[in-house]
Every structure is written in C-alpha cells, then in structure tokens.
Amino acid sequence: MATLGLAAYGYGIRYEYGIFNQKIRDGWQVEEADDWLRHGNPWEKARPEYMLPVHFYGRVEHSATGAKWVDTQVVLALPYDTPVPGYMNNTVNTMRLWSARAPNDFNLRDFNVGDYIQAVLDRNLAENISRVLYPNDNFFEGKELRLKQEYFVVAATLQDIIRRFKASKFGSTDSVRTVFDSFPDQVAIQLNDTHPAMAIPELMRIFVDIEKLPWNKAWDITKRTFAYTNHTVLPEALERWPVDLVEKLLPRHLQIIYEINQRHLDHIASLFPNDVDRLRRMSLIEEGGTKRINMAHLCIVGSHAVNGVAKIHSEIVKTQVFEDFAALEPEKFQNKTNGITPRRWLLLCNPGLAELIAEKIGEDYVRDLSQLTKLHEFVDDDLFIREVAKVKQENKVKFALYLEKEYKVKINPSSMFDVHVKRIHEYKRQLMNCLHIITMYNRIRRDPAKVFVPRTVIIGGKAAPGYHMAKMIIKLINAVAHVVNNDPVVGSKLKVIFLENYRVSLAEKVIPATDLSEQISTAGTEASGTGNMKFMLNGALTIGTMDGANVEMAEEAGEENLFIFGMRVEDVTELDREGYNAQKYYDQLPELKKAVDQIKSGFFSPKDPDLFKDVVNMLFHHDRFKVFADYEAYVKCQEKVSELYLNSKAWTKMVIRNIAAAGKFSSDRTIKEYARDIWHVEPSDLKIPPPNEPRDAVEDKTPNGTAA
C-alpha cells in the first residue's frame, strides 16, 4: 500500500512470543518459545502518548439516555509503531501493534485487604493478553484468552481511528468533528478473516451508546465502513464463539449482536415468509447444543463487500459456504486473487535472476510485474536459456552447501530439488508426497540398474502443537528419510530432508533453489496459497491440483506449462456423493499397497512397529482429503516431471514461460483491486520529495483535492 501511495495503517497485536520455533528431536516436532524481543527491536517505537483503555467483563445498565457498560475491568493498550516504506517513493505507512499493560491502580483500587505485593504480581493477568500468538492453523479453539486478544486489538484500533477522524479537519468546519456522515468516505476498514469481527458490534457500540447516533444511521455507516476477506472454507476453522463466553466478557456486545441478528432475520422473513429453515441457516446465532455466534455471518451482514482470495475460492464462497447470503446480495461478493511482493520474493531473495530479467526487459517490471510478459520474446534465446539455468544452478549449489552444513547430509546439486514447504496439515497432503517418496524408493530398490532421475525431496513446515495427526506426519517423513538416506543401494539417487523451523527467512533461501514446487491440496480446500506464486516467480515448475491460485497460474501460463493432475472440485463432490472408499484404491494399486504395508508393518519404525497405526487407520477410514484417490495420477504426473527434467533445455524453456506469466501474482495488482473495488481510493505513483529537498519544488505537480 505504501508502494502504491495509499495512506494506510496496519493494526495488530505486539505479541511478546510469536510463532514457536520448531526443533526436530528424534524425528518429532518439539516447540520452543520464540523470545524475539530479547535483544530489542530497533524498528519499533513505543508511543505511550497514544495509550488507550480497553474494557472487559462488567454489566449493562439501561436508562432513558441509553445503555451504559459499567463495572468493567480495564486493560491499557500501548501502541508500538513500525515504519513500512514504499519502494523507492519516499512514502512511509505505519504498522501499529498494541501491547497490553495493566493500569497502575490494577487490583489496588478495590477496597482491598492490602496485599500490595500480590496485587502487583497480578498485573501479569492483564498483560498476558499480548503475551503469545495462538499457533493454530485452520482450526478454531474457543479459548477465552483468544477472544480477549481479538477484542483487545479491535477496541484499541477503533478508538485510534475515531480519534484521528475527529482530529482531521478535512471536509469539516467543526474544530472537533462530531458528525459521522462522512466517516465511510474517510475511513475504510478491511477485516482480515473473522478474527477482528468484534469490530462490527464495537463500532455500533461507539456510535449508539457513546456518540448517541440513531441505530439505523449507525448501522448504515458501519456497513459502509467494513469489508470482509474470507480465508478458508474448512468448517473446523470457522469461528463460532459460545454465547455464554461473550456474555461474560463483552455483555453489551452480545446485546448489540442480538439486535443486529433480529433486524437481519426480520428482513429475511419479509423476503421469504414461512421459510424457517432459511432463517436458521442465515442466523448469526447457531442454536442446538451450546448457543454460538457465527462470526462469518456477522462479518457478511456487517460489511458492504465480501471477498475470497482466488477465483475458485470466491466461487466456492458464493455457491457453497455462504450461498444463502450470496443469493440475497450477489453484488456484495467479489474476488481478489492474492499476490506476493516482487521486492522481497524476487529482488531480495534472488538477485541473480532479478538482474538477468532486468538485462532483458529493463528495471520497470519491479513496480509493474505485468511487464514480465516481455520475457516471452526470449523463450527460444539459447543464451538466455543457459543463463536462467545457470542462475538456478548457482542457487542450488548455495542451498546444498547450507543443507550439508545444517543437516550433515551430502546433497547432489545436479539432482532435482523437489520442494514441499508449507504448514503441515492433512488438507495439504504431505502424506501423498510421502507415499510418492516410498514409491520412488521401492522402484530404485527393485531395479537399481535402471536410469533414475536423481531427486532431493525437501519437506518443511510447522504443525500446530495440539494437532496429533500433523505431528505424526512429521515423524513419518523423518522415519522414511532415515531409511532412504542410509540405504547404500539408493546412494545419491534419492535424498529426503525435513527442513527444520520453516519460516520466511528460510523460505528466502529454499525458494530460489527449487526446481519443482509441490502444491497438491485436495481440490476445493486451499483458498489461494501464495508459496505457489513465489516458486513460479523464482523459476520453479509446479506440480499441483486445480486448487486455489494454481488454477489461475495454469490459466496465465497455459495448463501445458504446469504439471496439473488429479481430481477437480466437481470430481471431489461426485466422490463424496457416491462415498469415498480408500480400500478400493489400495486393492487396485500394487505400488500404493506396498507403500502402505511398509508403513503399517513397521518397515520405517522397526523399534515400534505400531507407531504409525493412527496414520494408516486415518488413510483407510476417515481421510477427508482423499489421498489414495489422487495417488495414481500424482505418481504418473511425477514420471512426466522426471522425463522433462532429463531435457534441461526443454525444462528451462518451460521455466521461462512460467516466469513470463507470473506478473498477475504481484501484490501490487491485488492491492490496486482492493483500492478501486472496495475502498474506493485511487493509487498514486507520485514520488514524495525526500526531506532534504525543498517541498515547494513539487507543490505545483500535486493534483488538487487529493487525499487519502
């Protein structure tokens, strides 16, 4: 947004401990706290002058003047500002992260027995709010501390936004603005998933209870201010907060949510009389068992725009997940395909390739990635082909040295680097990759003399600490790696590495060195993915399903320039209809049977033959993601990959076609679409003069009436 000249603030929590550091001990994931602030953070600046109170608990008093939330507990939100500079345009936006602080009279103001020491120690209870990031991936865990975190960031941020709105003189004659009519024209708030959904009732509370706006006016302003981005369709990931918990922690907000819901359901009942099932499906409150608030429904009802993050995902959002809402307001639903920043994901991590591209098409592509299409002219240029291959080889040698240093495994840099790095989750199907590794291993053992295209398979990613199956998958990969890497028959033909503690800084090393990018989620489960785009831009070829942004990558580059395999969304739906029977595939595919039998019999865990029984049992009896159904197509597709890899020139030409087609996947394009279609602001390519230049030199160049 800074690069596009958009005035923006990014708000979040300043967690003391971020995502855990992953250690692998004896093949198992072990978590360690990430004490990232231990040595200080030179980029942040604490701003105590903007500290704000956030309220919890208490009760609601109703009177003639309206509702009052009283007897609350207060936690202070201390902002830390980090500058976010645009690319070479002297524009800097601010990321403001909130840290929780106890007020100085915490536990001392109540008619307190006088245990001063305990009262001071208890300050930790308040300050725990910003202590640690919840590490769940695509999974909702309804914990009170998590709800506190969600409301904490929302309440502090909205106070900050309103303070700034009231202080700004733009389009107003008042010394302090109290009229909110222009609020949605001045302020746009994008909800990044449902985690900040409490912002909707919180803004209503501010408008109705504090600013004394009539409900309908407040609701109109609120809806025009908010927009919601959906990030997942997995049902276990959707936030559904128990009503009892919200009532205890945020009693006024629950009342407001009930009121929003009542008016929402009245409207639907007027359009669809007697359709009680539709009312049940569309309610913000889920009855049956414990009453819960469906936060996605709250976001849809309280926003003027809803978007998915890839074409296929946005279609699934419209036609399956929220079909009733889309039928009601089709114009509300949009697509904004994700993108990645070419500054980090090309220039910074792969300077060799970035320079090579600049030599051919100039340097402007860095700000306008669509210019990469110019590379199509050089797809048959023998010198360019050799240079692209050379840069890749240099990156591989460099990464091979890193691996040998860190993992004490001898890597063959001329082998195909086959890379599968992302969070460990059943839907991402690292297990399918694992079955392919075992299949390759068995083929080498069966016929050691046969020509085999050597591979180094690199798998990395963190498992959520409470996700048993994901942790078993990590252990299995490491167990298979141990057998494969120590078998003299295999030698340098096949090596398997589990990359420890996969994170952005490690991605910057591995992605430029990758030949084959694994994007193999079950069709209809990966909202978009962005790693897929990073690999494409860095000269890797993709093996993948028609899922997430893979679909658009194939559309841009031509399906013949990706290794697309497996079921499409329609096939998955059809298979669900007839019932998925894993046993059938096991019985029909001898290589699959052999691989599964080896896992089951303890071939990879001789000291504990039953170690992987849970994994095998899942694959046969409750595999929601249908690994066996795509196994055969996957293995056959991998054979095509190996065949092409033998022809270095043909491989590199396909690489060039992919890079030339990667322009769509710049975050610049994504953000321009949000700006124009949702926030109604225009990006600007004005370069602000640096502080050492006199300002008046450019004043006449500034168009009249621009403001963000």
TrEMBL record:
Necessary cofactors: pyridoxal 5'-phosphate
Into which EC class is this enzyme placed?
transferase
Q: Which GO terms describe its molecular function?
A: glycogen phosphorylase activity; pyridoxal phosphate binding
**One cellular component term from this protein's GO annotations in UniProt:** cytoplasm
Annotated region (Disordered) at: 683-708
List this protein's GO terms for biological process: glycogen catabolic process
Q: Which Pfam families match?
A: Phosphorylase
Q: Which residues carry this modification: N6-(pyridoxal phosphate)lysine?
A: K534
Q: Which reaction does it catalyse?
A: [(1->4)-alpha-D-glucosyl](n) + phosphate = [(1->4)-alpha-D-glucosyl](n-1) + alpha-D-glucose 1-phosphate
Name the UniProt key words of this record, in alphabetical order.
Allosteric enzyme, Carbohydrate metabolism, Glycogen metabolism, Glycosyltransferase, Phosphoprotein, Pyridoxal phosphate, Transferase
- Any idea of its EC number? 2.4.1.1
* InterPro entries linked to this entry: Glycg_phsphrylas (IPR011833), Glyco_trans_35 (IPR000811), Pyridoxal_P_attach_site (IPR035090)
Highest taxon above the source species: Eukaryota
Basic and acidic residues compositional bias: what residue ranges?
Answer: 693-702
How is the quaternary structure described? Answer: Homodimer; enzymatically active. Interacts with PPP1R3B; recruits the phosphatase PP1 which dephosphorylates and inactivates PYGL/glycogen phosphorylase.
Q: What does this protein do?
A: Allosteric enzyme that catalyzes the rate-limiting step in glycogen catabolism, the phosphorolytic cleavage of glycogen to produce glucose-1-phosphate, and plays a central role in maintaining cellular and organismal glucose homeostasis.
The record's family statement is: Belongs to the glycogen phosphorylase family.
* Name the record gives this protein: Alpha-1,4 glucan phosphorylase
Q: What is the lineage of its organism?
A: Eukaryota, Metazoa, Chordata, Craniata, Vertebrata
